[in-house]
Write a structure and sequence with these properties.
The chain is mainly beta. It has one domain. It has one helix and six strands; from the N terminus they run αββββββ. A four-stranded antiparallel sheet has the order 1-2-3-4, with no helix packed on it. Strands 5-6 form a two-stranded antiparallel ribbon. The longest helix has 6 residues.
């Protein structure tokens, strides 16, 4: 059996590599979706989050996404709770980039 298929126990270090999806916001025009990805920095012992954007096809389906999701915010601190403006042209979110919410 190849090494890649061998099972091993989950370690504490593995937990630092996990990413979890957070809030999701579909644009009012149905053409884009913004979502939050949470990750952890082992060295700083901190959680971080960044907002990603995914363009959808003309039917507004994820199955036929136009491109891969691209990261919109730095993810150095915590960017969360994306909300689209009614015209679908702007995305608002909460951030603690400057040590303030």
């Amino acid at each position: 059996m190849p090494d890649a298929l061998l099972l091993r126990k989950l370690t504490l270090d593995d937990l630092w590599t996990f990413k979890m999806m957070g809030n999701i916001a579909l644009s009012p025009d149905g053409q884009r979706v913004a979502f939050v990805m949470h990750s952890s920095d082992k060295i700083k012992n901190e959680r971080q989050s960044a907002i990603y954007l995914l363009h959808l096809d003309e039917q507004g389906t994820l199955r036929y996404a136009v491109d891969e999701a691209r990261q919109l915010t730095s993810g150095v601190k915590n960017d969360s709770y994306p909300v689209w403006a009614p015209d679908s042209r702007r995305l608002l979110f909460i951030s603690d980039r400057e040590d303030e919410s």
